[in-house]
Design a protein that fits this description.
Bound molecules: zinc ion
Number of strands: 15
CATH superfamily of the largest domain: Ribonuclease Z/Hydroxyacylglutathione hydrolase-like
Helix content: 25-40%
Order of helices and strands: HHHEEEEHEHEHEEEEEEHEEEHHH
CATH class of the largest domain: Alpha Beta
Number of domains: 2
Strand content: 15-25%
Strand order of the largest sheet: 1-2-3-4-5-6-7
Shape: globular
Structural class: alpha/beta
Length: 298
């Protein structure tokens, strides 16, 4: 639960008359737990808990990229239905993690097609089987390996795959006419990323993916980020991608030097700052250090 929701729910839980009459409480209670913001004429972003969702409005219906968790997905579906009675046509997952596919189940019976990279499906199945949550999944029915393309109501949607990065199944989803690219967790804006080695992540190739992203898409592209330290900054431009690429490069160089200097894994994991990195925050630096150490010593 983020801080804002915590304040919201605490106020509700107390529920005293004095609080209800408080102007701040009235404002919070009237507020939805989620945020929706249009970033282009036909494209918006939804944030509440988990990875950023993008939605596209077309003549044929809504296209949704990622689903957070079931409760959040219900909030999104409710809000989209309020906006327009067009159907929800297509759902795409950037990758398998639960904060991006957990809400898929809310779309069961609503969407005609669910699309993801083939490794995203493989990983989603493996995690669900292990956690015995298979009945809570809605799996992709359409998978791609190198890429995928579909025209929906005047918009052209294309998925790209550049190999392992955050996992081994991360797709980049481009709404070509609107020129919006959902990067999923291949982009963690100013926040220490999760690097999922259990799902085939590669920091080295992740840097290459970011390079390819910078050359494939033009200067007018609006990029949607899976996560951001500042919740207002879940979208951005190429300078943000360059900054994240610089973070991953400095991480690999630093941990490589530590290994060469004979440092043990335990010593490396105790590090609290990576030299030259000033903008990345959060409490997940150890996840970066551990993934880099394991990748470099594998
Ligand atoms: Zn995520
Ligand atoms: Zn993820």
């Amino acid at each position: 639960m983020n801080r804002r929701n915590f304040v919201h729910y605490s106020a509700l839980a107390v529920g005293s008359v004095s609080l209800i009459n408080h102007p701040l409480f009235a404002q919070l209670a009237a507020d939805d737990p989620y945020k929706m913001k249009m970033v282009r004429d036909t494209v918006g972003v939804f944030t509440e808990k988990g990875g950023t969702i993008a939605y596209l409005r077309t003549k044929e219906g809504w296209v949704v990229v990622d689903t957070e968790f079931p409760e959040q997905a219900q909030h999104l579906i409710g809000a989209l239905k309020k906006t327009s009675d067009i159907p929800i046509h297509l759902l795409i997952n950037t990758h398998h993690h639960g904060d991006h596919t957990g809400g898929n189940i809310a779309f069961k019976g609503l969407v005609e097609q669910v699309v993801a990279h083939e490794n995203s499906l493989k990983n989603q199945k493996a995690v669900a089987e292990k956690a015995k949550t298979e009945d809570k999944q809605l799996y992709p029915d359409t998978t791609f390996s190198q890429g995928w393309k579909k025209k929906v109501g005047g918009e052209s949607i294309r998925a790209y795959y550049y190999g392992p990065g955050h996992t081994d199944g991360d797709g980049l989803i481009h709404f070509e006419n609107a020129n919006v690219l959902h990067m999923g967790d291949l982009m963690s804006n100013r926040r220490y990323p999760f690097i999922d080695r259990s799902a085939g992540a590669s920091i080295k190739n992740w840097i290459t993916i970011l390079d390819k992203t910078l050359t494939t898409f033009d200067g007018k592209t609006l990029f949607v980020f899976g996560h951001a330290f500042d919740p207002e900054k879940v979208t951005g431009g190429k300078e943000d991608i360059k900054a994240f690429k610089d973070y991953l490069e400095k991480l690999l160089v630093f941990v490589g030097q530590e290994i060469k200097a004979g440092k043990s894994k335990e010593e490396v994991l105790k590090v609290t700052a990576i030299p030259g990195v000033t903008e990345w925050q959060g409490d997940g630096i150890v996840r970066s250090l551990q993934a880099a150490y394991e990748e470099l010593t594998a």
